[in-house]
Amino acid sequence: MKEICEFTQFKYWEPYISPYDPCPPIKVKNYPTPPQLYITFQPKGLPQYDQETALFRGTLWPALDSPYPDPHFGKRGDANE
C-alpha cells in the first residue's frame, strides 16, 4: 500500500450552513499551515535564496517560504467571490 502525503500550505473545509443564518454563508473556509510542520529537520543541500531575495521573503530557504494570504481565495478569504 502506497501512502500519499499531501503537502499543501492551505487546508479547506465546508462548514455547516444553517438555513436560519442571517448572514451570507461562506461555503468554503480555509486556514494556513506553515511549511515547518512538514520539515522535521534541515536536510543537507537545501536550496537557498540569494541574499536580497531572502531578505525580501523573510527566509533563506524556498522550502520554508509561505504565501500569505491564500492565493486561491479572494480578499476576505472565502471562495464565494
Brief summary:
This is Spore coat protein CotJA. This protein has 81 residues and is mostly loops.
Q: Can you give a write-up of this model?
A:
This protein has a two-stranded antiparallel sheet. It has one domain (1-81). It has 81 residues and is low in regular secondary structure. 9% of the residues lie in helices and 10% in strands.
Helix proportion of residues, in percent? under 10%
| Separate helix tally | 1
Q: Any idea what the shape is?
A: elongated
Q: Beta-strand level of the residues, as a percent range?
A: 5-15%
Provide the succession of SSEs.
EEH
Give a count of the beta strands, DSSP E runs of length 2 or more.
2
Total domain count = 1
Rg from alpha-carbon coordinates: 17 Å
Main sheet properties: 2 strands, antiparallel
- Please give the order of strands in the largest beta sheet: 1-2
Low-confidence runs of at least 5 consecutive residues: 1-5, 77-81
Name the structural class. Answer: little secondary structure
Mean pLDDT: 77
End-to-end separation: 39 Å
Keywords: Capsid protein, Virion
Pfam families: CotJA (PF11007)
InterPro entries: Spore_coat_CotJA
Protein name: Spore coat protein CotJA
Descriptive terms for the model:
2 strands, two-stranded antiparallel sheet, disordered C terminus, 81 residues
